[in-house]
Amino acid sequence: MSAIAVEEVRKAFGTAEALAGVTLEVARGEVFGYVGPNGAGKTTTLKIVAGLIRPTSGRVRVAGIDVVERPLEAKARVGYLPESGALFDKLSPHEYLTLTGRLYGLAEERVAERVAHWLRFFDLAARAGEPIAALSKGLKQRVCWMAALLHDPDVLILDEPLNGLDVETVARVKDLMAALAAEGRTILYSSHLIDIVELVCTRVAVLHRGRVLATGTVDEVQAALGAPSLEEALLSLTREGA
Questions:
Q1: Where are the alpha helices (DSSP H) in the chain?
Q2: How far apart are CA 91 and CA 86, in angstroms?
Q3: Quick one: CA torsion of 36, 41, 46, 52, rounded to 10 degrees?
Q4: pTM for the whole thing?
Q5: What is the DSSP pairing of strand 78-81 with strand 31-35?
Q6: Nearest by Cα to 74 from 57, 61, 90, 91
Q7: Under DSSP, is residue 152 helix (H, G, I), strand (E, B) or coil?
Q8: Per-residue model confidence as pLDDT tens for the chain (242 residues)
Q9: What is the DSSP string of 153-170?
Q10: Could you give the CA distance from residue 89 to residue 154 in angstroms, rounded to a whole number?
């Protein structure tokens, strides 16, 4: 059984079709890259997989659970890190993460344990009591990472997850993704940082104008698109859409 199965998904916003029949299959324990030019439909796909918006047609399953028919069960298995995380600025990181854990239904002891663990991992324990509003963009992004990981999800959906992070934290996060995949967690990773995608992802799908053009290893995708590199393939698509 696939960890993520997207079958002929279409999504229209009024008369504009954002997705035109997307099909993806991501295996358990895989770090799967999802790339394409701006406006290709990547974030729309991720939001549908995360259960935040409904597809116009098609089917999406996470860990075998239909995200439309059983949304709460599906969301309980997913950790989602959006491109622009919406945080409660008046809360501290500790308060926000504690609230997040409670919303996921974790026991109080488990919440305290998980919050302490991730605050240490992301080197934010010393500022855990400050208002989130006082934190830099990069520190806020660390809080978003912690919120996505807090309930120990089977599937992690990441949309430009390295935004604002410093070099040390980026290295830590890359190691974390590899460790999570080795444990059997599944990661759907969307980013414009192609060098990172090539480094951490086992397979990649290229999306353009709401359609998947190619799926496979980086070498297979390059061959399918007739490009010397994944970056050059995306540059070509961007020029085409200009």
A1: 42-49, 71-76, 93-103, 108-121, 137-149, 167-182, 194-200, 218-225, 230-241
A2: 12
A3: 160
A4: 0.93
A5: unpaired
A6: 61
A7: coil
A8: 799 999 999 999 999 999 999 999 999 999 999 999 888 999 999 999 999 999 999 999 999 999 999 999 999 999 999 988 789 999 999 999 999 999 999 999 999 999 999 999 999 999 999 999 999 999 999 999 999 999 999 999 999 999 999 999 999 999 999 999 999 999 999 998 888 899 899 999 999 999 999 999 999 998 888 888 888 888 877 776 54
A9: -SEEEEESTTTT--HHHH
A10: 28
Distance between CA 228 and CA 19 in Å, rounded?
Answer: 27
Q: Is 22 exposed, middle or buried (0-12, 13-18, 19+ CB in 10 A)?
A: buried
Of 36, 54, 32, 3, whose CA–CA distance to 212 is shortest? 36
Q: What is the CA radius of gyration of the chain?
A: 18
| AA letter at 121 | F
59: helix, strand or coil:
strand
| Domains defined for the chain, CATH in brackets | 1-77+153-242 (3.40.50.300), 84-152 (no CATH)
The vertex-101 CA angle with 96 and 103, nearest 5°, equals: 95
